[in-house]
Amino acid sequence: MTIDTPPITAATQRRGTSTPATRVIGILTISMTIWLGVFGLVLSPADRDQGDAVRIMYVHVPSVWLAYLAFIVTALASGVHLFGRRHSLQADRVAGASAEIGVVFMAVTLVTGMLWGRITWGVYWQWDARLTTTALLFISYVGYLAVRGLEGTREQRARRSAIVGLFAVLEVPLVHWSVKLWRSLHQEATVLGTDLDVSLDGLMLFSLFVGVVAFTLLFVWLLLHRSRMLTMLDLSAESGLESALAQRRAEGGASA
Amino acid sequence: MTNAGFILGSYALTFGSIVIFAWRTVKVGKRLSADLSDEDKPWL
Q: Of A24, A50, A57, A254, which is least surrounded by CB within 10 A?
């Protein structure tokens, strides 16, 4: 028995998860990231109190912004999967892809924060409220990814991880407001504090803005590519299973 | 620039992580794409 499958051309192979839209977003992301480097390292002035250490903020703050955004998207997509009529597996893939991106950028946030802490506080790590809650948030999402990999049917794994994704996101406001809730070494929010007041020099604020725009574009680009990648991963697993079953049936038929 | 090692290190770490993560995502996507037909890729 032969199965008719559409031909896989060289052009198809080259395309992968890319589309004209992702290529445009990719080019915009690269351009903005180059500008971030120029503004953050060259054009932006040193801070009166922090000196040049403030330059780390232009990659540290956009990284944590991206991680928060990714975890919120994970929760939203988890909600769509769990409470939606069709219990969409595509929503689950978006949740998983977004969490993977969030974990990478939360790790970047922790390490860049440690480097900033070494300059400003003289130590890499302190068991301070902000740092500890951030580390817990990171560990929670590593756990979320571990839950995604547990045994079970595709639907069981999706349901399980959606529940974890909805609970884990509750830590995001806790991390953000930890500097207000507890005594903390970490400085309070510079841009989005409780009074919504912005206490930054114009060029510093602009550099930060460039970083946030660059990383938001990067998030969209990565999310599109990784959710498509997870779709193909599921299809490959399904087709692999189907092939194995067909082979077993054929073997059974031949021996009967 | 004072503390240049820490500052440049944080930029290198951030941009390096982005490049490795993005490159790996595209590479795995292309590998998986090679085994599937266009019908399995609704984004095309």
A: A254
Express each pLDDT in A55-88 by its tens digit: 999 999 999 999 999 999 999 999 999 999 888 9
Return the residue of B nearest to A16 by Cα: B30
- Taking contacts as CB-CB distances below 8 angstroms, the residues of chain A near B28 are 229
ipTM of the complex: 0.94
| Burial of A49 (C-beta count, 10 Å sphere; 0-12/13-18/19+) | exposed
- Domain regions of chain A by residue span: 60-186+201-233
Q: Closest residue of B to A20, CA-based?
A: B44
Best mutation target among B3, B19, B39, B44 (most A Cβ atoms within 10 Å) is: B3
pLDDT digits (tens, 9 = 90+) for A25-41: 999 999 999 999 999 99
CA distance B36 to chain A (A): 7
